[in-house]
Amino acid sequence: MDSDDNLDYYDSDYENQYSDDSDDTANLYDDEEDDSAVNPDDNSKSVKTFTVLQEDDINKRQEDQISHASLILSIPEVSASKLLYYYKWNVSQLHDEWFADEEKVRTAVGLPSDAVSISGTDELITCGICFDPFPIEEFHQMVCGHWYCKLCWKVYITTSITDGPGCLLLRCPEPSCKVAVCRDMVEELVAEEEWGKYRRYYLRSYVEESKKIKWCPMPGCENAIELELGNDLFDVACLCSGTFCWNCGQDAHRPVHCDTVAKWVSKNSSEAENTNWILAHSKPCPKCKRSIEKNHGCMHMTCTPPCNFQFCWLCQGDWREHNEKTGGFYSCNKYEVAKSKGLLDEVEKVREMAENSLNRYTHYYERWVANHKSRDKAIADLNALETGILQNLRDKTLESEGQLKFIKEAWEQIIECRRVLKWTYAYGYYIPEDEQVKKQLFEYIQGEAEAQLEKLHNQAEKELNNFLEKDEADFGVFRQKLVGLTAVSHSYFTKLVAFFETQKW
Amino acid sequence: MVDFSRVQKELQECNKDVKISGISVKPKADSLSHLIGTIPGPVDSPYEGGTFLIDIVLLDGYPFEPPKMKFLTKVWHPNISSQSGAICLDILKDQWSPALTLKTALVSIQALLSAPEPDDPQDAVVAQQYLRDYQTFVGTARYWTEAFAKTSSHGMDEKVQRLVEMGFPEALTRSTLEVVGGDETLALEKLCSN
Ligand SMILES: [Zn+2]
Ligand SMILES: [Zn+2]
Ligand SMILES: [Zn+2]
Ligand SMILES: [Zn+2]
Ligand SMILES: [Zn+2]
Ligand SMILES: [Zn+2]
């Protein structure tokens, strides 16, 4: 992409969008004045792009389609059920082909229109499988007139069900005969357990043959997600509370593209040996060197007394330098190549390059991991809030549940922002070296968003605790700050996401 | 459990017309789950005149599971491994049906000898030769038939005699030679390891 485009975009759209709500945000941000009407919930106008299907929903859809097809094609439901499976639930193709040449469809699927009629006989008939002679009552009659005793049928169908979903296409054992074994026959002949398996395969086929429905990949979850056609927003949320990318099955990663995610995930596993240390839970304080455990979600660390040094978990720099009030931008998100140590010979150059390349990767990976963990922590915190803390708070403030909703909304905003931020680090790693303008713009937007999120996260974690512990704190002020920071974070992250929507890669 | 009552009936049925078809099935030992099938090489093929022995193992699910079959007699054919005798044939895999029998399976194998399917090969070397140099393929297949598939008729007595002279009982020698497709060295190996 041409870098001029970026600048244009930045100058016009971005600025306009930015200034729309910057009046509100500026006030709130300065911790002064009273609350303005900022709705942190304007997420809600986004359209629903998917549907969660539970087992009953899938079953109902299948049965509806079966009875509909049965009506339209004037055939029994068992036949309709077979046809729909054969046509992979493509109703229009089934209709087209059926009305074009019914006999052809019947032959292909194995549903002959006329049955071979056999009048009762007193003679014994030899079963085509066990070769034993039996009276006619011992047989299960198929429309094709091939004779197999009930026991052989049972074993035949049971064996096929045990072998897998191929049982849904089972036909008469006679190799030259293509007559289909329909579900009424399966239900009549096999044991309860196999019948259950057969029905499961049938149910699953509805999802597995569909181009727009996929199973939820969360362990133990049996729901499926249907994506609205023509939709390229792949992030979906299942009823099991799992969120994932419908397209590639990874954790939800909007706004970053599936290709980037795939590259990143494989990079991470190939670099695992070099990056184990990043998964550590504690780091030495940069000032007093005591080991400090990270037990908050935000990156703002405070060393234990008497040191009390405030530093950044990610870069271990002084936290005060992460504040735009001191002048510069939030820049902890940027990777700076270490200055070369003067004249180097070839070997040293190669070593330095390798070192730089690992350092660069480490920079992004560490931030990716930190945000991932921070999000998990936020999810746990929200959970704790809903299962207890909120009640304490109600007792203390005498506020109604609705009036305390803003706390929950703040946490939901944090969880979503951590997710987006995490994936923007995978994206950042892959920005080509020669796209400096784009890189700078991206890092600027990312840095701004990250700085706001740290404030919001800090407020939600520590200030809430302060409020619960200290009696003199003013709940009105707490609310005002949290609502404001939620809105500001939302706005900054909307801009961050919007940046991606202008990118082709 | 193998349905032995059905296997019994199959053997009777198959061996009834062995004079016409040339195809027979016999138990390998006293168990009905391990059998030896015999098929004559089809006329107008490089296998004509040969007699091919097939090792047949019946799994517990038989006849609802396919029988396991492989050539004991060495054979040069695109769909049969020249090393192991493994056969690539759909009815021995996913196209098996309990309405088929050991006899129908052996008939299909015989048909496969007449009409190889080099596009779905078991032995890539043979299949390549079949496609690129058909004349050489026919020559090699004929030579293998002469060398390995005719020994049971020609020179069998001499082989039996030689082995008996080494001190092995005649009946055992004959059955051993039959099992290994007339290969004297293999038979000796087997006899010595007993
Ligand atoms: Zn039967
Ligand atoms: Zn039939
Ligand atoms: Zn789920
Ligand atoms: Zn994806
Ligand atoms: Zn310290
Ligand atoms: Zn930092």
TrEMBL record, chain A:
<comment type="pathway">
    <text>Protein modification; protein ubiquitination.</text>
</comment>
<dbReference type="GO" id="GO:0031624">
    <property type="term" value="F:ubiquitin conjugating enzyme binding"/>
</dbReference>
<feature type="domain" description="RING-type">
    <location>
        <begin position="123"/>
        <end position="336"/>
    </location>
</feature>
<dbReference type="InterPro" id="IPR048962">
    <property type="entry name" value="ARIH1-like_UBL"/>
</dbReference>
<dbReference type="InterPro" id="IPR054694">
    <property type="entry name" value="Parkin-like_IBR"/>
</dbReference>
<dbReference type="GO" id="GO:0008270">
    <property type="term" value="F:zinc ion binding"/>
</dbReference>
<dbReference type="InterPro" id="IPR013083">
    <property type="entry name" value="Znf_RING/FYVE/PHD"/>
</dbReference>
<dbReference type="Pfam" id="PF19422">
    <property type="entry name" value="Ariadne"/>
</dbReference>
<feature type="compositionally biased region" description="Acidic residues">
    <location>
        <begin position="1"/>
        <end position="36"/>
    </location>
</feature>
<keyword id="KW-0833">Ubl conjugation pathway</keyword>
<dbReference type="InterPro" id="IPR002867">
    <property type="entry name" value="IBR_dom"/>
</dbReference>
<dbReference type="Pfam" id="PF01485">
    <property type="entry name" value="IBR"/>
</dbReference>
<dbReference type="Pfam" id="PF22605">
    <property type="entry name" value="IBR_2"/>
</dbReference>
<keyword id="KW-0677">Repeat</keyword>
<feature type="region of interest" description="Disordered">
    <location>
        <begin position="1"/>
        <end position="45"/>
    </location>
</feature>
<dbReference type="GO" id="GO:0016567">
    <property type="term" value="P:protein ubiquitination"/>
</dbReference>
<comment type="function">
    <text>Might act as an E3 ubiquitin-protein ligase, or as part of E3 complex, which accepts ubiquitin from specific E2 ubiquitin-conjugating enzymes and then transfers it to substrates.</text>
</comment>
<dbReference type="GO" id="GO:0005737">
    <property type="term" value="C:cytoplasm"/>
</dbReference>
<dbReference type="InterPro" id="IPR031127">
    <property type="entry name" value="E3_UB_ligase_RBR"/>
</dbReference>
<dbReference type="InterPro" id="IPR044066">
    <property type="entry name" value="TRIAD_supradom"/>
</dbReference>
<dbReference type="GO" id="GO:0000151">
    <property type="term" value="C:ubiquitin ligase complex"/>
</dbReference>
<keyword id="KW-0479">Metal-binding</keyword>
UniProtKB/TrEMBL annotation, chain B:
<keyword id="KW-0067">ATP-binding</keyword>
<dbReference type="InterPro" id="IPR015940">
    <property type="entry name" value="UBA"/>
</dbReference>
<keyword id="KW-0833">Ubl conjugation pathway</keyword>
<feature type="domain" description="UBC core">
    <location>
        <begin position="2"/>
        <end position="150"/>
    </location>
</feature>
<dbReference type="Pfam" id="PF00179">
    <property type="entry name" value="UQ_con"/>
</dbReference>
<dbReference type="InterPro" id="IPR016135">
    <property type="entry name" value="UBQ-conjugating_enzyme/RWD"/>
</dbReference>
<dbReference type="GO" id="GO:0005634">
    <property type="term" value="C:nucleus"/>
</dbReference>
<feature type="domain" description="UBA">
    <location>
        <begin position="155"/>
        <end position="194"/>
    </location>
</feature>
<keyword id="KW-0808">Transferase</keyword>
<protein>
    <recommendedName>
        <fullName>E2 ubiquitin-conjugating enzyme</fullName>
        <ecNumber>2.3.2.23</ecNumber>
    </recommendedName>
</protein>
<feature type="active site" description="Glycyl thioester intermediate">
    <location>
        <position position="88"/>
    </location>
</feature>
<dbReference type="InterPro" id="IPR009060">
    <property type="entry name" value="UBA-like_sf"/>
</dbReference>
<comment type="similarity">
    <text>Belongs to the ubiquitin-conjugating enzyme family.</text>
</comment>
<dbReference type="GO" id="GO:0000209">
    <property type="term" value="P:protein polyubiquitination"/>
</dbReference>
<dbReference type="GO" id="GO:0061631">
    <property type="term" value="F:ubiquitin conjugating enzyme activity"/>
</dbReference>
<dbReference type="InterPro" id="IPR023313">
    <property type="entry name" value="UBQ-conjugating_AS"/>
</dbReference>
<dbReference type="GO" id="GO:0005524">
    <property type="term" value="F:ATP binding"/>
</dbReference>
<keyword id="KW-0547">Nucleotide-binding</keyword>
<dbReference type="InterPro" id="IPR000608">
    <property type="entry name" value="UBC"/>
</dbReference>
